[in-house]
Amino acid sequence: MNHFEIQDLPGKGRAMIATKSFATDEIIFEEEPFVSHQFSWNTAYGYAACDHCMRPLETLLENVRRLANNQAVAVPLVEHDPTALWFPQFTQCARCKVRYCSEDCLVEAQKRYHRVACMGAFRADDTHPINVLNETWKKMHYPPETGTIMLIVRLMAMYQQSNKKSEFLEQLQSFQALIVNREQKIYHKMLGENFERQMEQLYTAFCNAFKSEEFAMFTTPDAFKTLMGILGTNSQGIATSVLAQWVTKVSELPLPDADKEQLDTVIDELYAKVGDFAGEFLNNEGSGLYILQSKINHSCVPNAQSTFPYSNDIVVLKAVAPIEKGDEICISYLDECQLERSRHSRHKTLRENYIFVCQCPKCRAQASDPDVTSDEDEDDDDEEMDDCDDDMA
Fold first, then answer.
1. What gap in Å lies between CA 195 and CA 192, rounded to an integer?
2. How far apart are CA 327 and CA 194, in angstroms?
3. Sign of CA dihedral 366, 28, 111, 106
4. Beta bridge pairs of residue 15
5. What is the pLDDT of residues 243-267, one digit of tens each?
């Protein structure tokens, strides 16, 4: 039984309202995604994850040594490697060799989309229209990634394979696809002139990949923008890490204080080694669409947080502050660094990516602050423009 309900709030639209009180750290709900997919560059850089649920497909040692680019790195307490539980179950598609963490994931993928999505030997063919589409996307979206066109590719496979297409379309349409907020005159940044040529290239590649008549409803310009709007305003980032799971497990061991202190030092050294080579890109990363989670509004002072404690794509929503019955449940659409930026910077990001102006308590309290953009945003804008210039060259 869910202890919340979706309501329409005046001037705000749909919102998730608590029907009971939640204590800090209490689980509000768990949800499997409607669809998920690993990020394109994350895959290209060798981050091995189950093609269905994104569970890591590396042992702890394999993961740490790859991230550190050093095959001599040693890790203690390897008996607590979380992959030991599922490593014997690893399997793959017999035709295309896509890997899965278990037979269950392979069967579920086959049942939902992989029978038509399987590319067989063409998976390695750079000229295949799906690979061309993915490469077109990658040239426009360098790390750090926030989405992937392959999520839409998987949606197309789900539609093609579905025996209940009207039900699939109803579920897909439950996601808001705002790219224009006419009331507040806000437009998604992908409609800006800086991205116009990129969108045209992506649209052309998408149409070439899905020429069949059964995809006609998705390949009109407006339908494509709707799909991109769903991707841009609803997708939830997913991160899984065998290293992070191992750290959590060994940190909970009942060790003597001296041993615990030594372990903390070892963990710090491990993160330093992998950080020197891999930088901030330590996790298997991707994104997913979640029917329930997508109904949750943003606040710069959120009372809930989306977490992935099972090292797969199941999202667990937890309270990060006490929530009373009747309160709106809110998460942050911004990361921790973005939340610390100025009100003007936060609003800029939210307007461009989520098509609304935040009126949370923090933003209202800072309403009289000067409209100054944080230095970090200016740097991000410069990098984004550089990427655009490179793509136009």
1. 6
2. 40
3. positive
4. 7
5. 999 999 999 999 999 999 999 999 9
